[in-house]
Structures are given as C-alpha cells and as structure tokens.
Amino acid sequence: MGSIILTEDSNPGVAPSETDDVAIGAKHRLLILETRCSGTVAQNAIKKTGFNFNLVIDAQGFSGEIWLMWNNPNLSIQEISRNEQALHISVSYNLKKWFLTIVYANPNEERKRELRNYIANLDPTMNCPWMLCGDFNDISDISEKKGGAPPNLAQIRRFRDWMDLCGFMDLGFQGTHFTWRGPIWQGRERVFKRMDRAISNPDWRICFHEAYIETLPRIKFDHHLILIKCTGNSHVLKNKPFRFEYMWMQHKEFQPFLKNNWNIDLAIEQSIKVFVEKVKQWNHNTFGNIFNQKRILLSRLKEIQNSPRYGRSEFLDNLEDDFIKVLEVILDREQMFWIQKSRETWMVEGDRNTRYYHTKAIIRRRRNKIFKLRDSGGSWIDNLDSLKVHVCTYFKHLFQEINPNRDFNLHTQTIYPEMELGDMLKMKRVVEADEIEQAIFAMGSLNSPGEDGLPAGFYKTNWELVGSSLKSFVMNCWSNPSNIKEVNNTFLALIPKNDQPKFVTQFRLAHLIEDKVVKGEWRPFRIGKHGLSISHLMFADDLILFGEAFCIQMEVIKSCLDKFCEVSGQIVNGQKTQVFFSKKVNPAKRQEIVDLAGFKETREVGRYLGAYILEGRGTKQSYSHIIDKVKGCLQGWKRDSLSMARKVVLAQSAITPIAFFSMQHSKIPKSICNQVEKEQRRFIWGDDQDRRKAHFINWNTLCFSKEAGGLGLRKLDVMNRGGKTGRVRRADPLNPLKKAGRNRIWSPPN
After folding, report:
1. Which of 19, 72, 129, 582 could form a disulfide with 98 if both were Cys (CB 3.0 to 4.6 A apart)?
2. Is 538 helix (H, G, I), strand (E, B) or coil?
3. Which among 33, 32, 218, 24 has a CA at the least distance from the CA of 137?
4. Looking at the whole model, is its pTM more than 0.70?
5. Residue/partner pairs of 340-347 with CB below 8 Å, 24 or more apart
6. Which residues pair with 77 in a beta bridge?
7. Which residues are within 8 A (CB) of 599 and not within 5 positions of it... i.e. 6 or more apart?
C-alpha cells in the first residue's frame, strides 16, 4: 500500500509518518493507493480516519483502489473524470485553481498503455497548472532500480517518451532514492524501485515554484510515504550577496547614472564598492520593481478595455497605445531577468519567451537548493541551522592542518624538467592592454560573477568607461602580485556530482610513482606484449592508477598514497576511490586486495574527464548515455514552450556538442547517430510515439548550409567520420597513448 500527503502548509512541523493514525492537519490531503478493499469495508475504514470528505475508486479484486481524503471545508475539490487507474480532479484553494491526477498504474504493460492514452487525451484540455502523482509502476532511469534482473530499457524508454509527449517534468525528490521495496523470492536478491513520483506541466511548476517532494521513512508497508509540499520552505537568505541585474542596462537612464557614479580616479575595488551602493539606491528609486509595474500596467489596460467608451474615445486609444509601449519595455526587461536567472545562454535574442526562461530558472533554483543531507552516521539532517553547521564543520575539518610540522620534501629522484629560455621570457613578459581586453571579451556575459556581483557582461558593455580601471588593476597586480589579495575573495558553492546528493562529500604524486617504477617495486600495466607500460593517468585531481593484481603491489600503491598525504596534508577520499579488476582475476584474490586497500570494488571504470572508459568493444548500449542526454535537452515541455525558430536553434546548438564530445575520443555507432537525429526531427516537427507529423522539408535539405538553402544542421554520421580523421591528424607521433594503441594493434618483432 502506498500513501501520499499533499499539503499547502509551508511549515507543517514534524512530518507525519505511516504509524500516525490521523497526524494530518486541515491543510493536508491524504491519498492512499492499493488499499485492496472496497464498498462498505472501505467506507467504514475511511470514517475511522476522521476525514470529513473523500473520493474513492473501488478496488478491482485484490488490486487497485484510490482514496482521496481531506478535512478543510474551504478546499474545493471537484471530480472531472476517472478510470480504474486514475482519478482526475480540480483543486481550488487560496485563489489558485489547478488540476490533480492521482495515479495507480496496473503492473500489466497493456493496462499501463491504456492509462497513458487516457492521460494523453486529457493533455490538450489542460491549459492550467496540472500535477500528477502516485504509483506509476514504472521507472524513468536505470538508476531507479536496484537488485534483481536488469531494468527493461524498452519500458523505461516508453515511459520517458510518454512524459515528453505530454510535456511533463519530474518534480524530483528529497530523501530515500527508492520508494518501493519488493519481497525476497526463494532466496533471491531483494528489488528496490522508485515507482512513486510526482510530475507536472510547466504551468504548475511556475505556479508552485517552491514546491518539493520528500520521501519519508518506510516502516510497515512496502511503499514509502510521499510528502508533497506545494508551498515549500522559502528560506530568505540573510546578508544576501549583491548581484548586478543585466536588465538594468536596458534603462535609458543607466548610462548617465554610470558615468556620474563610476570614479576612474579611484582604485577599481573602491570604484566598485561606491558604485554598488549607488546602484542599489538607483534600483529602488528609479528602476523599480518590474513585476509590480507589469501588474499595474495590465490592470490599467484591463480598465481601459472594459470602459464603455473604449473604441469611441481618441484619448483612451492613445492612452492604450502608450501603456502597450511601456509594457513592451517591461516585458523585455522581464525576459532578460529570467534569462540571467536561468543561465540559459544558448540563445538570448529573438522572439520573447519569458515562460521558457522562467521555467528553466525555477528548475535550476530547485536543483541547487539543499533540503537535507546525511551526517557521517547516516542520519538525515533537515533543519536549516543544523545543515549550515554540518556543512561548515565538514569543510573546516577537510581543510584543517593535521600535521603542521610535516616534511614538505618528497625526497624523490624525479625532478621537473628545465624550462626553455624562450618560454621563461614569455612567462616574465608584462601583460599588454589588448590581452586584458581579449580575455574579458572571451568570457560569458552572464556567467557567475565574483564577490563584487558584476558579471563579465557589465565590463564588456561599458568597456569605454570601466575598461581603463580594469586594465590598470590587472597591470598593477602583474607587477605586484601581492596586491591580488585585495580582491581575491570568492563564494564557495556546493556542486553535487549526482542528481540527488546525500553527503557533503598534487604536489607531485607522479614523482613518487615514477621512483617506484624505476626501482622495480611498482609493476605497471602493459598494453600488449611489447606495448607501453602505464602506471598512472593524472589530470588535476582526477587520477587513475594501474598495477598488477597482487597484494604486494597494492601495498606499494598504498605506501605512495600515504607518503603523498603525509607531505601534502591532503587525504584520499575513500568514498570516491574504487578498485577495478580485469576479468581474469579470481574472486578470492579480488576480495583479498580490496580488504587490503580499504576501498570498494567496482564493475566498471566509469568516466574519466567526462569520457566513458569502456571494457572491450563499445556497443550501442555503451553509448546509450548520449541518447539520454539528448532527450534531457529536448524534453517535451521545452518543445511546447518554444517557437519553430528556437526549436531549430536548440536542436543544433545544444545537441551537436553532446555527440561531438564523444566523437573526439571514440567512434560512435551509426545507430546512435541515427537515433540522435531522429530525436532532433521529433523535437523540431513535434512527432510523438504513436503519430508522425508532417515533415515539410527533407532532413538532408535542412542539413545544408544556410547559404545553400538549409538551416545549418549537421549530419552526425559525417561528423563521426570526420572526428575519426581529426583524431588521427591531431595525434602527436610521440604521444604515449597513440604509441600504446599502435603497439596494441601491431607488436614489432624482437
């Protein structure tokens, strides 16, 4: 049995658990799925819960049934339609009206198809906020299942295609990843899945932009209790850092204001400090709140258009034209506001599309918010003040000096090569003004600013006025490097490496490794009988170590890491470090080495510098992540929010780099290229899984250059072959990896 609590309360206190009988306030609605009882038995059970209002779909045998119960008399709920697997209602509360569909999908694939068709037929009539929640009996990604047989990729694809067809977006979750725990059959592995979820259309996401979903602990039943907070917890940050709004530069009085308040005679850090204080006042007194201005203008236009004299009064006609002109300016500013918030930089000009950028900004904002984390003991922390203490404590401990009297010398025989005289002179050369200007203009205009809150676009747009101050500062720092400390402050941002983070979690290590290899203690991995030996691959903090599968070799590797940690003061992250074995290493030896290392074993190497490292020959399944990324960029709600011109630009600018990145290091199967192009065509022309719309122009024609009458889209198969040629031409003949590959294919005789 599954249960969902839907609440309008932004602070409901302690979240109810499944052991509470009626721990639900007047602002809550309780949805219960799969009760396996109906008729009189169901009504008697509902009366015992203490709810005054309910809607029920009866069970079919021992499966199904949906109960919706609520207490608030001010909550208006009206049933619109129903079938055996869903209940579709309208909800009115606090002057907001939206639609809710409660789902309990049948496990049978044919019955699930009937449910999807039922919901898809509702979709064209839903021009208002709409949310769907319940047990969909499907997963949308292979990561949403653990244990048992491998996930059915065809079922996953059908579920995701249906969501794209209807323009739905997953609202995500906080807490436990899986929502259902299966039984253990005949001693087999237990299965866990995320089958309960909430999805919505963009209108609902915009209307309830603070809403979020929390998976509560499971106690008695096989499903977790799901808590949906419509209003969420809107945490107002204290001491919120200043951020320059790009839309300010669209105001006609901004340039005169900047000239009067930017002092080129002061040091740039002082000029920025004075300007920031002045522009805050200017924003409040002159620029104003664009959302209030928009609301007032729309209200005035409504009054004019409802006037009995409308259409017969020249004064009202002129006043309407004036208001519309002002409203156009406000709408342009609003669009720029949401473009900056969304960080969507693939297109900033064209027809106005505030809805798209608004939705992207809300999704990004919700993704970046941290609601709860686990501590070192595995317990959840969800209190805001406790979260702050936990995160600060973690990083203070991470960066503290454990051994202040350590020896800073590695004492290795490997030394740095001497730098050529010409390179040394280039390094010592004074930076020129043109180089500074080129560096600034190469930056993204809307990229995250520093502590001063001024993005690169501010300097680029106002370069004639502020450029001299910035050039003087950079040249001064170049001559006196210690002056950089005056502005060398920044904000630390927690960037999770997965979608649902749960934990907060090189002098020259290569010199130590090389010494061990030269002495014969470290036996590296050899590619082919006469091929190159590789002991390590290293880029910044991404590191792969190679060695033979013997315990003595693991002891050598551990000694190098321990020595490096002792000298550098850094610590190896045990949670992120894994051991990968080749197929011929027997399980007993694997376990012995893993126990000695103290790290977890992994069945796949995963990604290194963004590229997937494949074991054996790459197959279509090996590159399925490209299709997943493409579908993520071309979600159905984006298609419904963009014009034809913008869909073409998105299909070109956002998709081609995804595939081309993989083409730079390996050849993608032709079937993957064809599937990516198919997704592009579906997005541009609006195809769905059951119906192909008219494609008015041949795809090959669209892939012509614009000068030849096409739209400049690229044929991925041609790019794939070109990428292979580029890889060969770019490769240095002395490059060790190219040499390793050549020796792997052909080993020269002794």
Report:
1. 129
2. strand
3. 33
4. no
5. 340/245, 340/246, 340/247, 340/446, 341/365, 343/446, 345/444, 345/445, 345/446, 346/649, 346/650, 346/653, 346/654, 347/646, 347/649, 347/650, 347/653
6. 91
7. 574, 577, 578, 579
CA distance 206 to 646: 21
* Domains of the chain with bracketed CATH: 2-229 (3.60.10.10), 509-613 (no CATH), 621-744 (no CATH)
Helical spans, DSSP H, in 177-267: 202-207, 254-261
> What integer is the mean pLDDT of 437-454?
84
Helix (H, G, I), strand (E, B) or coil at 603: coil
Region of residue 308 (left: phi > 0; alpha: psi -120 to 50; beta: else): alpha
pLDDT digits (tens, 9 = 90+) for 15-62: 444 434 333 444 456 666 655 666 677 777 777 777 778 888 776 654
- Residues 443, 718: Cα–Cα separation, whole Å: 31
Using CA of residue 523, residue 529, residue 533, residue 536, what is the dihedral sign? negative
In this structure, the chain runs to a length of: 750
167 touches 637 (CB < 8 A): yes
The model's pLDDT over 356-395, given as tens digits with 9 standing for 90+, comes to 665 666 666 666 677 677 777 777 777 777 877 887 887 7
CA distance 475 to 432: 8
DSSP 419: P
Kindly state the percentage of the chain with pLDDT values over 70. Answer: 75
Count Cβ neighbours within 10 Å for each residue of 234-254 and write b for 16 or more, e otherwise. Answer: eeeeeeeeeebbbbbbebeeb
